[in-house]
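Sequence in, structure out. Go.
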Amino acid sequence: MPNNSEQTTGNTTMGIAAKTALNGGEWIVKESNPFQTFIPEDFDEEQTMVMDMCHQFLAAEVHPLLNRIDSLEPGLMPSLLEKAGNQGLLATSLPEALGGLGKDFITATIVSEGLGGGYSFSVAVSAHTGIGTLPILYFGTEEQKQKYIPKLASGEWKGSYGLTEPNSGSDALSAKTSAKLSKDGKNYILSGQKCWITNGGFADVYTVFAKIDGDKFTAFIVERGFEGFTQGEEEHKMGIKGSSTVQLFFQDCKVPVENVLGEIGRGHIIAFNILNIGRLKLNAATIGSAKIVADMALEYANTREQFHMPIAKFGAIKHKIAEMYIRIWVSESALYRVANWVNEKEHSLEKEGIPANQALLGAAEEFAIECAMLKVFGSEVLDFVVDEAVQVHGGNGFSDEYLVSKAYRDSRINRIFEGTNEINRLLVVDMLLKRAMKGKLDLMGPAMAVQKELMSIPDFGNEEEGLFAKEIKCIANFKKAILLVAGAAVQKLMAQLDKEQEVLMNIADMAIETFHSESALLRLLKLADKLGADATAFQADMVKTYIYDAADRINKAGKDALNSFAEGDELSMMHIGLKRFTKVESFNTKEARRRIISYK
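Output:
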């Protein structure tokens, strides 16, 4: 099989049309080339060492102290962040001129995954390196960056972020915290409160959002110790108990005018752009956590005996654990595919003369759709893994004596962090349609082509042959299913579509399943070309099993959407089309999962 951009798989070409990098959302209407797809097996020696260093840090510094961390022992979490800073783990992609290591976005993503298995510590380090540091890095003046970034990079100062208020959860722009310019013009006077502030109990620097004169949503850099700034008691939470979470109170808090962050009235630009990066990195962290929990479940199953044999020998347990590893592998495949897209787009924008502090934000915004999908999928994979891991542990899984119970509780927050999964599902379709309306993505042409295809007689003969040709065809058909349902929804519901949230979430689920199925297949194709089909039998079993099951999930989501707005002959015809596009050949997933476990 030729290893170049003109690669073909049997008679099925995959990626000839994709000689250049795809733009956001284009994967729905264009093919992707596996050889232009970055996969975890492409990590270079340094990146592999970075991952190992993260794992070693957790094993040596974090895991032995989990009970002390959960008790919110004063000073412990800040000291761990300082130790991470001493090893460069807080400064991976920060500029060298500001005390960082200057590494690329993929390496920064690797750190997020590598530290993802640290329970509450993972939350603290993610908040510090993400929302606690990046707003100043990307939107700060040169003086602000010189003052704050080096100390944040080293861990001497800890970062936090104040956006959410008691009555403004997902609707962040409805915040009530106000800011007024003082009479002498030297300070802004902040009044209001923020809630659910991660790292809030010990941070030194906070990015806080308030409305100037009641309508100009603006970000401010607030330091601990500013007059009029206080914090509440630590919140008692279901999980991530060791993560400091407090309310912040501003009672005529004086913030120097030079601490306005970014432009007055454009705080939403900061808030929403930082979220794109945060969603991708949350996905990375969930993968790091899920890997640890899946290994935990496998180890327990191999040592726990019932009826005179390890429970790992039982088919029901094999099914559970194999499914954990399948979903983790699929999630990981999509993560690094998108991380590389962001990385390449960042470098492309820099070459066009875009300043470095804007290039990454622009790149992340380009792939905001994919970042939202990653966040949803990764958080739900981790929830699945921890739930099944508790089940594998049986009654012991319900005991605090076993770490799996902590993992179960800690996981739940991820479906709420970085925008709820419901909000992110709605955003996936909303952003796709907006890109189409702006001419950045041609959805209408392909959608009309799919409708014409429904009127033709399907040709079931002359099936293309070649390595994974059937799986390649499945992915192409899944995309047609999305276009069929989304196109019909737009035509039928028109301006009312944004009010049909159930339909939007159905379409989003179809897109999420398809994107992750394709990402896993691209990874498999690249590995098979490099190692050979025999050497990738394990990965092939995972991909085939996932695609087989994904077809049913896509079909169900599509039917639910169509049933919501179509009827009669029109509905019958679209059901036939949806069935055609989600048809897969019979596959023995039971034996595939058993083989997957045997590889482990």
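Check: Residues 160-265 form a domain with the Butyryl-CoA Dehydrogenase, subunit A; domain 2 fold (CATH 2.40.110.10). Residues 267-303 form the longest helix (37 residues).
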